[in-house]
Amino acid sequence: MSIFESLYRLSFGFIAGGTGATAVFPIDLIKTRIQNQRTNPKAADALYRGYIDCFLKTFRNEGFFGLYKGLLPQIIGVSPEKAIKLTVNDFVRDKFYDHQGDIKYRYELLAGGCAGCCQVMVTNPLEIIKVRLQTAGEIKGGHQIKAREIIRDLGITNLYKGVKACLVRDTTFAAIYFSTYARLKKFFANETGYNHPLSLLAAGICAGIPAAALATPADVVKTRIQVKPRAGQTSYDGIIDAVRKIFKEEGAVAFSKGAIGRICRSSPQLGITLFIYELLQRSFYIDFGGRAIAGSIQAINQQRELNAISAERIVLTSMETNLGAIQAINQQRELNAISAERIVLTSMETNLGGLTLARFHMNKPPPIDN
């Protein structure tokens, strides 16, 4: 992949990522607050009774813009993060396509995992800022903190607090998501392999369901590590410590907290992101000499050309094989003819030798008696 092609894909990923993040941000905020709640929703001291209760309380206490707290750092982080994720996934996948345009499932998982791993350098600092901004409004009458205050308090090093949990979450999510998305695209494609834009959106949304659900436990652990604990709340020192304490204090069910919110946020967000990303590539297509995006008209035409070339190669190979066989037969005939000539000559030489010997004996003078 050339530098220009990388910039081309990164720019589309940047636009698509920012749009998708903005569209579903209120869901992400509610999900984060539910995950950060340390008590059972049915308990008397529970701050939120569920997703709807969280939404209503946030809207009532903080207003409409309260639902978008932490949006700016999210856009700043998500746009390059999605750009990196989409570009790396495409780059790795391109290395494993066969001549028919197919790729094995294990390589799809590898491509997605690499994409998720590469995004963490950008994701983690913005994640910790986002979750602290999102949970700051929970304290009624509390100080309205700004992103710069969080950065100043944490310092550069602590912006990567919880990075291991973030790595586990993002790698797991991306590996499942991109491999599922690719399979669903094929399932929703028509008989020619073309994907209607709405099928792209459907594939993107559906792929987010298993990916978000299976990555939720890691997301819960990441959130708990990154959120600043309030007075009386448990603090966590790494993944193992967080898993042990959460399980001991809240039970296994705590690891599924925010799963519904995460699914409702991740599925449409990635669906919108991939939808815009692929439409941009279709609308502003540039042929860099590589493989066009799957399901597009360009990819179908490209595959037809490859199939035609393959068919020509098969015909040429067959002709070469037949020509080689004909040449081999002719060579064998020549060898057989030469062998026959040699046999005749040998026979003639043998017969000639016999006649010469006979004449010698016939012309030999009789022996002289003494």
Written account of the structure:
GO terms for molecular function: L-aspartate transmembrane transporter activity; L-glutamate transmembrane transporter activity. By secondary structure, the chain is mainly α. The protein has two domains: 3-295, Mitochondrial carrier domain (Mitochondrial carrier fold); 305-370. It is 74% helix and 0% strand. It has helices at residues 3-36, 51-62, 71-94, 105-136, 147-158, 163-188, 197-226, 239-250, 259-283, 297-363. The N and C termini lie far apart (109 Å).
Report the average pLDDT across residues. 83
Total beta-strand segments? 0
Order of helices and strands: HHHHHHHHHH
* CATH C-level class of the largest domain: Mainly Alpha
CATH second-level architecture of the largest domain: Alpha/alpha barrel
According to CATH, the homologous superfamily of the largest domain is: Mitochondrial carrier domain
Number of domains: 2
> What is the CATH T-level topology of the largest domain?
Mitochondrial carrier fold
Count of DSSP-assigned helices: 10
How many angstroms separate the termini? Answer: 109 Å
- Helix content, binned percent: over 70%
Strand content: under 5%
- Structural class determined from secondary elements: mainly alpha
Protein name: Mitochondrial carrier protein
Family: Belongs to the mitochondrial carrier (TC 2.A.29) family.
Membrane topology: Multi-pass membrane protein
Solcar repeats: 4-95, 103-187, 195-283
Write the layout of secondary structure elements.
Blueprint: H1 3-36, H2 51-62, H3 71-94, H4 105-136, H5 147-158, H6 163-188, H7 197-226, H8 239-250, H9 259-283, H10 297-363
Helix pairs in contact: 1-2, 1-3, 1-9, 3-4, 4-5, 4-6, 6-7, 7-8, 7-9
GO molecular function: L-aspartate transmembrane transporter activity; L-glutamate transmembrane transporter activity
Solcar repeats: 4-95, 103-187, 195-283
GO cellular component, one term: mitochondrial inner membrane
